[in-house]
Amino acid sequence: MANKKEPAPGWPIVSGEYVVGNPESCVGVVTLGSHGLEQACIEAGAAIAGPCHTENLGIEKVVANYISNPNIRFMILCGSEVQGHITGQCFKALWENGIDDSGQIIGAKGAIPFLENVDKDAVERFRRQIVEVIDLIDCEDIGKITQAIKECLSKDPGAIDEDPYIIQLEGGGGEEEGKEGVVKPITPEIAIVESRIRLIGAEMGYNGLLAKWQSGYYNGKIQGIAAGLFIMLVFLGILML
């Protein structure tokens, strides 16, 4: 029988829309933008299952709950991909590549893939603990998802040989205003707007540089013509003398 460990007291330590099953299970399921799949995942044997919409605070909450339970060794990504955030791809990039010094998920394609409350040590613990990420992104087929859960259970390597890693997330109150460790998630719409604003700002900067170049080119052209006319007049004046 695979070796098991006690998760952190009060696990899951961060609130969310998830459903909790057997805390000794080796499988965690993220249903991304889909709802209604959680209970079937729990019945199939998952430790925890729930959606995750954002590629920053949402991912932080999932990481915090996973690494505070050493028994979770597999992550299944399923359900519809979240447009704009591309959260499923960001999870894969986090597990494969980690984060850089600024907290950006290396190789992530989401709108704002930055982790502000989860440091490199926590990310590396997550990468060590999760031995496999199963990609069922955009799959809502309960049969395929439950089959993947059962396959992971059959390969259970036991708990990671490390104690629960507890993260105290900071930030706004969110759904449970004022409770410690609760972050206020960014809605998909807001994140997309913020991303568009950054892109517009970059375009404005580029257009400003282009306008300066065009202005300089135009002024230089006028000055060149004026200088040419002056030289020609001087040359003609000399010839007429």
UniProtKB/TrEMBL annotation:
Pathway: One-carbon metabolism; methanogenesis from CO(2); methyl-coenzyme M from 5,10-methylene-5,6,7,8-tetrahydromethanopterin: step 2/2. GO terms for molecular function: cobalt ion binding; tetrahydromethanopterin S-methyltransferase activity. Part of a complex that catalyzes the formation of methyl-coenzyme M and tetrahydromethanopterin from coenzyme M and methyl-tetrahydromethanopterin. This is an energy-conserving, sodium-ion translocating step. One of its GO terms (cellular component) is plasma membrane. The complex is composed of 8 subunits; MtrA, MtrB, MtrC, MtrD, MtrE, MtrF, MtrG and MtrH. It is found in: Cell membrane. This is Tetrahydromethanopterin S-methyltransferase subunit A. It comes from the Archaea. Keywords: Cell membrane, Cobalt, Membrane, Methanogenesis, Methyltransferase, One-carbon metabolism, Transferase, Translocase, Transmembrane, Transmembrane helix. Pfam families: MtrA. InterPro entries: MeTrfase_MtrA/MtxA (IPR030688), MtrA (IPR005778). Its main location: membrane. It catalyses: 5-methyl-5,6,7,8-tetrahydromethanopterin + coenzyme M + 2 Na(+)(in) = 5,6,7,8-tetrahydromethanopterin + methyl-coenzyme M + 2 Na(+)(out). The chain crosses the membrane at residues 222-240. 5-hydroxybenzimidazolylcob(I)amide binds at H85. GO terms for biological process: methanogenesis, from carbon dioxide; methylation; one-carbon metabolic process. Belongs to the MtrA family. Its cofactor is 5-hydroxybenzimidazolylcob(I)amide. It is a single-pass membrane protein. The keyword Transferase applies. Binds 1 5-hydroxybenzimidazolylcobamide group. Its EC number is 7.2.1.4.
